[in-house]
């Protein structure tokens, strides 16, 4: 019966049950119930049209039933969200680290600096930690914003600052990575939320990261012209990478969430 | 007399655990049994039964198994676990205490 199948699909599709196997089982169970109902109704001498009408009337509001299932499986959904957050962060941070380091190695190679200077272990570790903390903060933003209906960015910023404060206190000398990640994450989320034109966003990233590269080069001594140019290029590559992450983050997260939900 | 759905919501766990303490049943059968035992007083929307059953199963109070009936139809049967039996007894005591207390208030002048 088409209407009954449609009703079951409507319930299961809106139920937010985070497991394909479980959704299939719910579908099977509801179908079995409706078949029992139809069998009893036929035995009672009712015709098909009447049975269809009775199924829809007796089964209840599909949205309400779906909300009931959503509430029952809320903890599983939260766990899946946390898992997707960690997985997306790791996937995006490692892809970004690899891309940025490869691009920086390319820049170094172009200007004749030994590639190993760029990929030297300390530099690589610092860069990777900066990227990991920035991507984690950005992904945390997108997750926390879902908790609010209005002024999402502002509220998520406050909540994230509250969450990170004890972590910063506990991180000791390594707190610089968390602070960098927080500032970077807030910066990229802010321009994404408040600046709708892509070219304007890119312009801001180029200006800010170019300036940061220039300033950080000035802090080193001796200040060499080619070192300033390389440092600016390196920061611009980083900025481009983060901008790319903001574009990809939602898609990667949705793909992972939908993919894992099917399992 | 029709029972208010909000009023019924709070007692659905007690109702389901009590029914399943008598025998293992599948969803449609539970509804039929509830309706029969209450002289058609419990006629809630059928679909709302399943989230309640899944919630009880998640709490470990009931368990389920798919089985094929004699007529070849597949059904998911629910039965009480040891924890469910204990909860059913506990809920029953609480219910009797509560209804007794409410009756005393309603009857007092």
Structure description:
- The complex is a heterodimer of chains A (263) and B (109).
- Chain A is mainly α.
- Chain A folds into two domains: 2-72, no CATH class; 74-262, no CATH class.
- Chain A contains eleven helices and no strands.
- The model of chain A has no long low-confidence stretch (mean pLDDT 87).
- By secondary structure, chain B is an alpha+beta fold.
- Chain B has a single domain (5-107), classed as Winged helix-like DNA-binding domain superfamily/Winged helix DNA-binding domain (Arc Repressor Mutant, subunit A), CATH 1.10.10.
- Chain B has helices at 5-9, 12-22, 27-37, 49-58, 82-107, and strands at 25-26, 62-68, 74-80.
- In chain B, strands 1-3-2 form a three-stranded antiparallel sheet.
- In chain B, helix 2 crosses helix 5.
- Chain B is globular and about 60 Å long.
- The mean pLDDT of chain B is 87.
- The chains are: A mainly alpha (263), B alpha+beta (109).
- Chain A binds chain B through residues 11, 25-26, 28-30, 32-33, 35-37, 58-62, 64-65, 68-69, 71-73, and chain B through 26-28, 44-48, 50-52, 54-55, 58, 73-76.
Average pLDDT taken over every residue of chain B: 87
Q: Biggest interface: chains and residue counts?
A: A-B, 23 and 18 residues
What is the CA-atom radius of gyration of chain A, in angstroms?
26 Å
Q: What is the CATH T-level topology of chain B?
A: Arc Repressor Mutant, subunit A
Please tell me how large the radius of gyration of chain B is: 15 Å
Unreliable residue stretches of chain A = none
Strand proportion of chain B, as a percent range, falls in 5-15%
Largest sheet geometry of chain B: 3 strands, antiparallel
Biggest sheet layout of chain A: none
Please tally the helical runs of chain A, counting DSSP H or I stretches of 4 or more residues.
11
Percentage of residues in strands of chain A: under 5%
For the termini of chain B, the CA-CA separation is 25 Å
Structural class of chain B, by secondary structure, is alpha+beta
Order of helices and strands of chain A: HHHHHHHHHHH
Write down the secondary-structure element order of chain B. HHEHHEEH
Structural class of chain A: mainly alpha
Distance between the terminal alpha carbons of chain A, to the nearest Å? 28 Å
The coarse overall form of chain B would be globular
């Amino acid at each position: 019966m088409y209407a009954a199948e449609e009703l079951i699909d409507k319930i299961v599709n809106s139920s937010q049950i985070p497991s394909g196997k479980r959704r299939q089982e719910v579908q099977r169970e509801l179908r079995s119930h409706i078949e029992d109902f139809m069998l009893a109704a036929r035995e009672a001498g009712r015709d098909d049209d009447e049975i269809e009408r009775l199924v829809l009337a007796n089964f209840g509001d599909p949205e309400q039933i779906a909300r009931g299932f959503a509430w029952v499986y809320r903890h599983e959904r939260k766990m899946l969200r946390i898992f997707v957050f960690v997985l997306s962060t790791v996937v995006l941070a490692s892809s970004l680290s690899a891309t940025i380091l490869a691009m920086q190695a390319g820049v170094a190679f172009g200007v004749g600096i030994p590639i190993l200077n760029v990929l030297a272990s300390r530099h690589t570790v610092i860069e990777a930690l900066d990227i990991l903390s920035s991507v984690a903060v950005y992904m945390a933003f997108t997750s926390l914003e879902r908790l609010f209906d209005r002024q999402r960015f502002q509220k998520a910023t406050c909540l994230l600052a509250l969450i990170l404060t004890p972590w910063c206190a506990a991180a000791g000398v390594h707190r610089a990575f968390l602070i960098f990640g927080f500032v970077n994450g807030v910066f990229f989320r802010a321009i994404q939320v408040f600046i709708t034109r892509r070219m304007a966003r890119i312009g801001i990233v180029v200006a800010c990261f170019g300036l940061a590269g220039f300033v950080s080069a000035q802090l080193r001594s001796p200040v060499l012209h080619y070192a300033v140019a390389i440092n600016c290029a390196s920061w611009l590559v980083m900025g481009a990478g983060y901008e790319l992450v903001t574009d990809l983050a939602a898609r990667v997260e949705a793909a992972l969430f939908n993919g894992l939900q099917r399992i | 007399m029709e029972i208010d759905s909000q009023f019924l919501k709070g007692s659905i766990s007690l109702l389901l655990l009590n029914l399943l303490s008598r025998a293992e049943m599948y969803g449609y059968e539970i509804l039929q049994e509830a309706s029969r035992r209450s002289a058609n007083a419990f006629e809630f929307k059928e679909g709302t039964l399943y989230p309640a059953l899944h919630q009880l199963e998640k709490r470990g109070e009931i368990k389920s198994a798919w089985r094929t009936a004699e007529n070849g139809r597949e059904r998911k049967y629910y039965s009480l676990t040891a924890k469910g039996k204990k909860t059913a007894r506990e809920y029953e005591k609480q219910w009797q205490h509560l209804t007794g207390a409410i009756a005393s208030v309603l009857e007092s002048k």
